[in-house]
Design a protein that fits this description.
Elements (H helix, E strand, L loop, with lengths): L1 E6 L4 E10 L1 H16 L5 E12 L1 H15 L4 E5 L3 H9 L6 E2 L3 H9 L5
Parallel strand pairs: 2-3, 3-4, 4-5
Antiparallel strand pairs: 1-2
Helix pairs in contact: 1-2
Pfam family, one: STAS
InterPro entries: Anti-sigma_ant, Anti-sigma_F_ant, STAS_dom, STAS_dom_sf
Function: In the phosphorylated form it could act as an anti-anti-sigma factor that counteracts SpoIIAB and thus releases sigma f from inhibition.
Length: about 120
């Protein structure tokens, strides 16, 4: 498992996930993103699942947990480009409203409130 965490703005972070997300990898990601949220900087997380091939239930827990943390700062979450299998998992877990098929730039524009077209 490999991941990249990029602060796009002071408030917005993009998390790119590669390979397989299991309970071992979840701990690394949780520590980094939770620290940023609790410091008061991050209010939006864009999870890019485009290059993720597998995610177990701990991955869903990771997303849900960060969403709960963001509630304290009226934060937002976008689940970007999940595979068809992950999309079903998100539907069953109630996360379908946060799924978006777009580029990272389009997701960032949506967060900023920019509407095109």
């Amino acid at each position: 498992m490999h991941f990249q965490l990029e602060m796009v703005t002071r408030e917005t972070v993009v998390i790119r996930l590669f390979g397989e997300l299991d309970h071992h990898a979840v701990e690394q990601i949780r520590a980094k993103i939770s620290t940023a949220i609790f410091q008061g900087a991050v209010t939006t997380i864009i999870w890019n699942f485009e290059r993720l091939s597998f995610m177990d239930s701990s991955g869903v827990g990771l997303v849900l947990g960060r969403m709960r943390e963001l509630e304290a700062v009226a934060g937002r979450t976008i689940l970007l480009n999940p595979s068809p299998t992950m999309r079903k998992v998100f539907q069953f877990s109630g996360l379908a409203p946060w799924v978006m098929d777009a580029t990272e730039e389009e997701a960032i524009d949506r967060v900023r409130g920019i509407v095109n077209g």
